[in-house]
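Hi R.,

Here's the input for the flavin mononucleotide complex you asked about:
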Amino acid sequence: MAAQVHEWAQSLESLHAQAWKRLLRGVNDRRAAGRHPTLATVDAQGTPQLRTIVLRSADPEASMLRVYSDCHAAKVAELRANPAAGVHIWDREAHLQIRAVAVASIVTGSSVAALWEKIPEHARCNYGTQPRPGTLLDDGLDYERIPAFEDFAVIELAIQQFDLLHLGHVHRRARFHRSDDWAGQWIAP
Ligand SMILES: Cc1cc2nc3c(=O)[nH]c(=O)nc-3n(C[C@H](O)[C@H](O)[C@H](O)COP(=O)(O)O)c2cc1C
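And here is the predicted structure with flavin mononucleotide in place:
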């Protein structure tokens, strides 16, 4: 990887701002690294569960992210039982690893109807798999995808902590906490 000067990595404030810039780019650009974070949950056995998701919205003011899913997905059940979530992105272009710890809320029904309306018809079939996601099948194609608003779930992730690692000609790592109003603290990489 070619060493590059990213001036934004030199201060805590601009490093934190850059993380949000990359998250917002993920929402708006299908090719950006931030488009497809890894979302981590912990299941009922205490086993970590990781999967790729699409980042649907990022709100720097509220420090919130949004992900869409089928309400019958394992991740939704896991987050209902234990709202602790992790988000991970390696943004190669920015040489920036973003790790976030979040508290998740699952929102369904009328309060997410406006978001459902904005999803193009062809994409709504991601929410409404029959039989439910995770059901054992005799054949790999023994399922249907029928758009169902009742099955649409929005995972709201209230970020509590960021761990940001920038790999430049020198490496910098910092941690930021919501409880500290995101002031940030350098830490050894
Ligand atoms: C590129 C990509 C994007 C994905 N986006 C989503 C998504 O936004 N929401 C979702 O529920 N699953 C998404 N998936 C599928 C999940 O990675 C996962 O396979 C599925 O949701 C089942 O996970 P679970 O059993 O842990 O709930 C995506 C998979 C890939 C490869």
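One thing worth noting: The mean pLDDT is 97.

Cheers,
M.
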